């Protein structure tokens, strides 16, 4: 079916290939409602079939696709399905999968607005909608990056630029050699990737000051060190274990009184702003100077997708523009590459636009509220059965202990082997726990009931066997 090298493929063959891919993808997604969430060991072992030497000659594209589907589809974790509750990640909304395919066919290099006007414009519109629905200040500029790790990196590069400029230092030109030192403050519960981002920026993983947290993982405002000179304070909206929010309003205000930059890692917690019911959790977040969030978590778009936002216009491009002297475009045209670490990149804002366009304000709020309702239902059902819920379930995260650490570990393994749903294991302030994270558009109240029943069935069996 593949034409000889150098010959154009017929439109009919190309169409058949893409339709075959669409049908295989639809069959795969249909299977997720009933198949075990984790892949069977035999399917994972079968991946060996692909481990051949590099093919010497071309192969037919349809056959290659069929092999990929036959061997790899059964070896996937059903992350796109309705009962995957691991790692605080969602599945991809159907509209975003479809938009992703179309954008992949466009194959636009989203670096330069003049070369790719269509996707550049849609990304600019998506950023405006994000600012609106997340309640960020009108002056805010943003960038589409791969996820919260790079969003933190990007926003913190802007922070580094600004606090050093204030001290008379041009970090992009001079580097950090001989620069005034920057004090970086984080909470004890900062996400490990935030620490990594600070290390990548030359701010030193070991030099960071860590503020003690309370029993929910919230930074203690009364333990904030004295701030003076170039300072960056990193806050968290949504702890990956408890879902808790730092006291944002108090901490942002304290940072600004000391002339410090206030950054918020809101990988999933920033989305609380999009629900009237949840928004009070993130009160004061709009006071910050920069924000990082994920779209591939709670907005439910395909990997990889995150956004960085910076309040003061010009600061993000000052850190990210390729030319040393960033000149704001006089005609208002937004050159995407002036805002991101990358030059060439895919137009990942397309799927963000598609998610916001299809959900609308009310659909987004409904999804967030439904997920949080699911988390509360899990917590209530597990507590009613006599198991200990370790966190205040304020958002979409539930931590539950089934007794001694080894018993909880056995329950986690048994839940994963049972296959009805998938939850991970974590250690929360010294306690081993099963972590349930509800963040998929696909999860219905029925899925929550089915999963709760499975966890209780498994936990009762395991705890009875150790008594
Ligand atoms: C998931 C997460 C990150 C890292 O996000 P990636 O998208 O995996 O890079 C950072 N911070 C918090 C709070 C997170 O939950």
Write structural notes for this entry.
This protein is of the alpha/beta class. It has a domain at 99-355: 3-Layer(aba) Sandwich (Aspartate Aminotransferase, domain 2). The chain is built from 13 helices and eleven strands. The strands form two sheets. A seven-stranded mixed β-sheet has the order 1-7-6-5-4-2-3, with helices on both faces. A four-stranded antiparallel β-sheet has the order 8-9-11-10. Helix 9 links the parallel strand 4 (231-236) and strand 5. Helix 5 packs parallel to helix 11 (349-384) and helix 11 packs across helix 13 (445-466). The longest helix has 36 residues, at 349-384. The chain is globular and about 60 Å long. The structure holds pyridoxal-5'-phosphate (PLP). Pyridoxal-5'-phosphate is lined by residues 88, 147-149, 191, 193-194, 236, 238, 240, 265, 267-268, 294, 306.
Sheet bearing the most strands, described?
7 strands, mixed
N-to-C SSE series? HHHHHEHHEHEEHEEEHHEEHEEH
The whole-angstrom Rg is 24 Å
Average of the residue pLDDT scores = 96
- Please report the first level of CATH classification, the CATH class of one domain: Alpha Beta
Bound small molecules, deduplicated: pyridoxal-5'-phosphate
The assigned structural class equals alpha/beta
Instruction: Indicate the percent of residues in helices.
Output: 40-55%
């Amino acid at each position: 079916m593949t034409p000889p090298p150098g010959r154009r493929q017929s439109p009919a063959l190309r169409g058949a290939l893409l339709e075959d891919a669409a049908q295989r993808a639809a069959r795969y997604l249909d299977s997720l409602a009933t198949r075990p969430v984790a892949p069977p060991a035999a399917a994972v072992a079968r991946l060996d079939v692909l481990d051949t030497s590099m093919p010497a000659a071309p192969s037919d594209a349809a056959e290659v696709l069929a092999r990929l589907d036959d061997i790899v589809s059964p070896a996937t974790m059903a992350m796109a399905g309705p009962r995957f509750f691991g790692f605080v990640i969602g599945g991809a909304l159907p509209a975003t999968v479809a938009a992703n395919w179309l954008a992949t066919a466009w194959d636009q290099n989203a670096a330069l607005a003049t070369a790719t006007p269509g996707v550049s414009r849609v990304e600019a519109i998506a950023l405006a909608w994000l600012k609106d629905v997340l309640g960020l200040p009108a002056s805010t500029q943003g960038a589409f990056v791969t996820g919260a790790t790079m969003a933190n990196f990007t926003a913190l590069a802007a922070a580094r630029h600004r606090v050093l400029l204030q001290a008379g230092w041009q970090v992009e030109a001079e580097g950090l050699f001989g620069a005034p030192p920057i004090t970086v403050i984080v909470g004890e519960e900062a996400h490990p990737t935030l620490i990594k981002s600070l290390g990548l920026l030359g701010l030193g993983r070991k030099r960071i000051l860590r503020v003690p947290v309370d029993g929910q993982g919230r930074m203690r405002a009364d333990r904030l060190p004295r701030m003076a000179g170039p300072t960056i304070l990193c806050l968290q909206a949504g702890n990956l274990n408890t879902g808790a929010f730092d006291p944002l309003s108090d901490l942002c205000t304290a940072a600004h009184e000391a002339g410090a930059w206030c950054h918020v890692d809101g990988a999933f917690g920033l989305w609380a702003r999009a629900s009237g019911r949840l928004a009070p959790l993130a009160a004061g977040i709009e006071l910050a100077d920069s924000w990082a969030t994920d779209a591939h978590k709670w907005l439910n778009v395909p990997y990889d997708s995150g956004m960085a936002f910076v309040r003061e216009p010009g600061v993000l491009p000052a850190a990210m523009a390729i030319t040393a002297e960033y000149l704001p475009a006089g005609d208002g045209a937004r050159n995407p590459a002036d805002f991101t670490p990358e030059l060439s990149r895919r137009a990942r804002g397309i799927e963000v636009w598609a998610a916001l366009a299809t959900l609308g304000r009310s659909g987004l709020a409904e999804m967030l509220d439904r997920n949080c309702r699911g988390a509360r239902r899990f917590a209530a059902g597990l507590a009613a059965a006599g198991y200990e819920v370790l966190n205040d379930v304020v958002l979409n995260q539930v931590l539950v202990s089934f007794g001694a650490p080894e018993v909880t570990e056995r329950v986690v393994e048994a839940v994963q082997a049972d296959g009805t749903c998938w939850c991970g294991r974590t250690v929360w302030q010294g306690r081993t726990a099963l972590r349930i994270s509800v963040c998929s558009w696909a999860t219905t109240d029925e899925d929550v009931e089915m999963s709760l029943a499975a966890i209780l069935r498994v936990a009762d069996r395991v705890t009875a066997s150790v008594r």
